[in-house]
Amino acid sequence: MSNPSPEETAGGAATAPGRTAVATLAGTTLEWYDFFLYGTAAALIFDKQFFPSLSPTAGTLAAFSTLAVGFVARPLGGLVFGHFGDRIGRKATLVVSLVMMGIGSTLIGAIPNYDSIGFWAPVLLVLLRIVQGIGLGGEGAGATLMSMEHAPKGKRNLYAGFPQMGTPAGLVLANIIFLVTNSLMGDNAFTSWGWRIPFLLSFVLVAVGLVIRLRVTESPSFNRVLEQDDVVRFPLAESFKVGFPRLGLTLLAVVANSAVAYVFMVFTLSYGTKNLPYDRQFLILSVTAAAVLWFATIPVWTKIADRYGRRAMFVGGSAAILAWCAVFFPLFDTGSDVLAVVALAGMGLIIPVTHCVQGAIIADTFPAHVRYSGSSLILQTGAILGGGLAPMISTALLGDGGSSTGVTWYLVTMCAISLGGAIALFRTVPGGPAAGNQPPARTLTQV
């Protein structure tokens, strides 16, 4: 184990690492709650509320297209928040991103439907989805950096994994509130107006997260950047000095995880209730249980990465996801509740193997003074190419025939691309801190 670098020891008055990790987990959980709540509503509710004149397939495609809009907006948020995160600090940008998500989600709960205001209903939905996407675009990379840059020696992957836990935690929270509200009101009332309640609750949840986040001090890494006068005028442009081959391979390595996750978390809800005989509440509960497995196993995998290195783990996890994608829909298509639970639980166990360290891999690609901008660029571009388009592409591949074969090939292809990208990336960048030890501020790190 290497000695701690100056960057690790900078900022003696910094918040305790554990408190920072919890604060980033709380913030990302609440932001992902808002984002996944939209995905669940898009799969089950929005086609009837905002696109009632379209056929069921076209309405679902339209609803998923508004989901994709949020992903298109995420790079804009990543670039804006990344720029200011590298120039004025991580903490302030993360506070603003949380507030934006809260405002966007709360107002979605107040939009009149198509029957009330016609064309303007989906227009307002798209605009607020853009606000959500911009806010989450600033959150993804920033929370990982804040926790990772506070990490003690030898635990860099573990602490970078805390914000990653916010993804399944947000999904669990969103689905539980969605299910409880639905159960208390009944299907008719919930589909008509009750779906708004979970969105309106965002205001309260984000207020709680804001109180927690405001208590965290600035990242020691950014404090060191200030001390050394390393702040640059255009950090995004500076981040390209890593080199396009390295940037491209990093992007390819992480793109499949997002695609697979959104098919598993969002598309299966629509597909399973409209094309297969699954009950809506059963599917939501099954996906939620799988997300609990995802959440619970992240600390296990990140500890393994810190102890043994993350390269072999990431490549092995990428291969495992590819293999499971090949059998996922054949299991799901049986219509058996037991096999559906097996298929979904398998996703919950395998996805975190790569998801837990991808944020750290991306972050360690860049020196501290441009890390927020560079990480945001890779993370949000991968989110568009992977997760943002996945439910819409899957619905289009399904078509009127209802066969999932095309969706299976789509996922297998995406996984093969990421597996190849990961292998090439780690061969292109030999040596370096495979377990993720902290680099000096001006050194381009190794994956």
H/I helix tally: 20
Work out the helicity level.
Answer: over 70%
> Which structural class should the secondary elements be placed in?
mainly alpha
Q: Low-confidence parts, pLDDT < 50 over ≥5 residues?
A: 1-14, 431-447
The whole-number mean of residue pLDDT values reads 85
Rg on CA atoms, Å: 21 Å
Shape: globular
The run of helices and strands is HHHHHHHHHHHHHHHHHHHH
Q: What is the terminal separation in angstroms? A: 16 Å
- List how many beta strands DSSP finds: 0
User: What share of the residues does DSSP label as strand, in percent?
Assistant: under 5%
Q: Biggest sheet, open or closed, and with what strands and sense?
A: none
How would you describe this structure to a colleague?
- This protein is mainly alpha-helical and 447 residues long.
- α2 packs parallel to α8 and α7 runs antiparallel to α8.
- The N terminus and C terminus are likely disordered.
Question: Secondary structure elements and their pairing?
Answer:
Layout: H1 6-9, H2 17-44, H3 46-50, H4 56-87, H5 90-108, H6 114-117, H7 120-149, H8 156-185, H9 187-194, H10 196-200, H11 202-213, H12 220-227, H13 235-239, H14 244-274, H15 280-308, H16 311-332, H17 337-363, H18 371-388, H19 390-398, H20 405-428
Helix pairs in contact: 2-4, 2-5, 2-7, 2-8, 2-11, 2-14, 4-5, 4-7, 4-18, 4-19, 5-7, 5-11, 7-8, 7-18, 8-9, 8-15, 8-17, 14-15, 14-16, 14-17, 14-18, 14-19, 14-20, 15-17, 16-17, 16-20, 19-20
